[in-house]
Amino acid sequence: MNIQQLPHEYRARPLTVEDAAEVTRLCNLEELATQGKTEFTEGDAIRFMSMPGLDLEQNSLALLDDQGHMVGAVVLYHVLHIQFEPNLFVDPAMYASGIADYLLTWVEERSRALMSNAESDLRVTMGIGTNVKRTPICQAFERHGFRVIRHALRMGIALDAQPAVASWPEEVRLTTFEPGMERAIFNAEMEFFQDHWGFMPRDYEEWRHFNTAFDELDPSLYFLVKVGEDIVAMALCRHEHGEGWVHTLGVRRSWRRKGLALALLQQAFGEFYRRGIQHASLYVDGQSLTGATKLYARAGMHVMQQSAQYEKELRAGKELRTQTLAV
């Protein structure tokens, strides 16, 4: 579909943060269609739409019907103008309307315009992750030349009995987040995740926006393992969407295979259980370079949901993202 072929009954405009409720509504409709329940909240939408560096005026588009109701939207993020990450929202009732095709065409044209800001020898891609049950949207990605390169898994565990108690090596100590630790935690996370497929360093202010600069933060669920004052492992957890979430779990390479990741999971599960939280979840790369899926299965977690990671190459060149485990 050509970018000019917007059906006459729709109009397009950029999103604003004030559209968070409508974006949430679209996301919830898709969640109900694919998983039978809603999790995404208006607070989540506001957080994503107000992230540092995001220019909604230039890098978002909403489609409205003749009654002014939003029927589709896309928000385009990027990392260094070489990794473009569009978030696509479409009312499931409109899947057959061509709206997804229009939005994908628009967001690719916008990405191609922005990639001129990247160094000319670097590989540039668009990447989109989506629930595999979102079949019409997956088909739209494929029509536009995207291919599946990876799968992400949502793994979970029922906390209906006291979890195993964490066991720690003698030389480490467990602590939790305190104000002033932000930069140290960020630096540690960037180090730990260099061995994860697709890794690229992130902007500190963006990281802070999503990890520490919000009212709902519970610092007692940000578990840090230290040797002296050095962070060697972490599990950044939250209670949201009705369950416990392990958002970030990482261990320094020299401290892996010493039981720290399993102990951190057990610490998190134990704290969730103590608070009466009955279920915990996390997301993981289904082909994890570090074998994370095996660890999570050993901790009692099982696969609940699968998402496909689609990619389209916009320009060939030198790849900056982690592809293999460095020796």
From TrEMBL:
Q: Where is the N-acetyltransferase domain?
A: 10-160, 172-321
PROSITE patterns associated with the record? GNAT
Domain of life according to the entry: Bacteria
Task: Supply the name of the protein.
Answer: GCN5-related N-acetyltransferase
Show the CDD domains listed in the entry.
Answer: NAT_SF
Please list the coiled coil stretches.
none
Q: Which UniProt keywords apply?
A: Acyltransferase, Transferase
Annotated GO molecular function terms are:
acyltransferase activity, transferring groups other than amino-acyl groups
What species does this protein belong to?
Ktedonobacter racemifer DSM 44963
